[in-house]
Design a protein that fits this description.
With 264 residues, this protein is mainly α. The protein has helices at residues 15-28, 41-47, 61-69, 95-107, 113-127, 163-169, 193-206, 226-238, 241-248, 251-263; strands spanning 77-82, 146-151. The radius of gyration is 19 Å and the shape is elongated.
Length: 264
């Protein structure tokens, strides 16, 4: 899953683990994962030999997968990443192209042969479609198989669908908040919901005096603790019946449910 294990949480499970292995699976009623392994977009960039090298793109996704096989006894994988990378969030990207590139990279990788063969079969099926959305059946997660979840534009689009829901989650419903972001909410053309909306929203709330009591357990700013704030907002929104329905109907959740149900 694209995310980070830092900074360490004050208590309890890691935020990334909470998001992907508790909150979303339980809300969608799908099986939890055996392990949640943080990745970055640079792992996918390094997987594609056609991409020019960028700073930080050292280990490829497949090399990370092989390394993690020594720690976790996993037999299949779901790869979740943001379509729009932080270094070019407004660029022109295509979820289909990235998915095809992922499988091409896995086929040419150093993964064990059964994994490469499974990726080749999946790639052949994708390329045989007349159009990307013309599939015959739901993709099933099988032994040595990989299924993609490319989040468009990125995970945080889940959290900015409803400004009122975000205000309730942050404990500021009905309260005047100076410097609160008023544009971009529920805008499908907004490609940087994290930087342009949530970062500003968290900054504004943290500056309030008297302080908002409900956010005391989340350390640091959005910039330095995206997963922590993401876990907090998602948890609060899933506990809000109106916001919960909005969250579960988002394309990211629908795709995760589809993958989870197909693999269970």
């Amino acid at each position: 899953m694209e995310g980070s294990e830092s900074p360490p949480p004050a208590r309890g499970a890691r935020p990334l683990e909470r998001i992907w292995n508790e909150l979303l699976p339980d809300a969608l009623r799908i099986a939890r994962f055996a392990a949640v392994i943080p990745i970055s977009k640079t792992h996918l960039v390094a997987e594609d030999p056609n991409n020019p090298p960028i700073s930080g793109a050292g280990e490829s996704l497949s090399k990370l997968m092989v390394r993690m096989m020594g720690r976790f006894d996993y037999q299949s994988a779901i790869i979740c990443w943001d379509l729009h990378p932080s270094w070019n969030a407004d660029g022109n990207y295509c979820r289909w192209d990235e998915t095809v590139a992922l499988y091409r990279g896995l086929v040419a990788s150093e993964l064990p042969p059964p994994w490469r063969n499974s990726a080749a079969t999946r790639l052949e099926e994708l390329l045989s479609r007349p159009t990307p959305n013309q599939r015959q059946t739901l993709p099933a997660l099988q032994r040595h198989g990989v299924l993609p979840l490319c989040m468009e534009p990125k995970f945080e689009s889940l959290l900015v669908q409803d400004e009122s829901a975000a205000r309730r989650a942050l404990g500021i419903h009905g309260r005047r908040v100076p410097s609160w972001p008023t544009s971009g909410w529920a805008d499908p053309k907004e490609l940087q919901p994290d930087r342009r909306i949530l970062d500003s929203a968290v900054r504004a709330v943290r500056r309030l005096r008297p302080s908002v009591r409900g956010i005391a357990g989340v350390r640091q700013s959005w910039e330095h603790n995206k997963d922590g704030w993401g876990e907090f907002l998602l948890r609060r929104m899933l506990g809000d019946e109106e916001a919960r329905q909005c969250i579960l109907q988002h394309p990211i959740c629908r795709r995760l449910a589809e993958i989870g149900l197909a693999s269970s």
